[in-house]
C-alpha cells in the first residue's frame, strides 16, 4: 500500500522534525544575532560610560580590561601614538572591521576618546557556547523524541495496516475471508479495535458469502423451475392451435401464446440481471428490425379501438451480437408504455444505425414524473394497470449491456424514449 498509514506517519514525523529543526535554527540565529549585536554593544556602552564616570572622579583611573576586548584612551589634544592606525578616522559609535575580525566601540568625551576593540573570534566562540551548543542539543532532542514517538505510533497502527492489506488483496468475486478468522489473526493484532474490526469484517464476509450462495442457487433453480411450466403452456397452446376453434377461442389462444412468450422473455431478463456481471449470457447475432417487428405485432391488440397509428421507420439496418430477448424486453416495454398512455395520434418506432427510438403523442410526463420514471414500482397514472417495473427493468438491462436509455417528454405532447447502442 503506497499510501499506507506507516508511510503517512513517517512523512508526518519527518515534516515535524524538519519544521521544529527550522524553528530551533531560527531561534539560535536570533540568539547569536542578539549576542553579536545587542550584548556586545550593550557591554561596550556600559564599559565606556563607567570609564568616563570614574575618570571624571580620578584622573588616574585605569583603562577597562577584559578577556574579550582591549582598550586604548587618547586624552583630548594628545597624540594617538600607541593606538592602532586603523582606528584613525573612526567616528564615535560601533564599527565592524571585517578585515581584522574586530568590533570597535569609539566613545568620545571632552576629556578624550576611548577605543574598545572586541575580538570577533572570541565573540563567535561565545555565540557557539550560548547558542550553537543549545541548538545542537535541542535538535538531537527533537530527533530522539520524534523517533521514539514514531516507533510507538508505527507499532500502534501496524495492526490496522495489516488488516487493510488483507482486505485490499481480496478478490471481489471470491474474497478470502478465512484469513480474518479469529484463530488465524497474528499475535500483534492484540485485543483492541483492530481485532474487533477484523472479527466484524469476517462476520460480514461470511454473511456475504451466504447471500451470494443463495443468489446463485436461486438463479440456477429459478431458471429451471420457471421455464418448465412455461414450456408446458406453450406446448399446450401450440397443440390447441391445430384445433378448429371459434374466432373468440382463436383470439384467446393467441393471447395465451403472446403472454407465454412475454413471460419467457421477462424471466430471461430477470435471470440475466440476477447473474453476476462477469457471467456472460448466451449471445446471438440478430437484426434489430426483426426484434422491433415482433414487438410491434405483440402490442397491436393494445391499440384496438384507439385512433392511433403505429408505424416503423427504418433509417438503417443495424445488427447486434447480444441476447436478443434482452432487446425484445426493452423495446416491448417502451412500446407497451407508449400504447397505454396514447389515446390518439401516432406512435413511431425509428430504427437508426446506433439507436432505436419510440415516440408517441400521449399524455407526456412532467419534470417530476420524468425524474422518477425509472424508479421501481412508480406509476405516474395509478388508473393504468401494471406494476411499475417496466422502465426500471429497461434501464437496468440497458446499463448491463451498455445500451443507455434516454427519456424526453413534454406534458400533453408525448414522450420520446431512445435506446442507444454503444459499440
Q: What this model shows, in words?
A:
By secondary structure, this protein is α+β, with helices and mostly antiparallel strands. It folds into three domains: 5-79 and 93-144, no CATH class; 226-279; 282-420, Histidine kinase-like ATPase, C-terminal domain (Heat Shock Protein 90, 2-Layer Sandwich), CATH 3.30.565. Helix content is 53%, strand content 17%. The protein is elongated, with a radius of gyration of 47 Å.
Q: What key phrases describe this protein's structure?
A:
423 residues; alpha+beta; Heat Shock Protein 90; 3 domains; four-stranded antiparallel sheet; 11 strands; elongated
Short structural summary:
The protein has a 5-stranded mixed β-sheet. The protein has a 4-stranded antiparallel β-sheet with strand order 1-4-3-2.
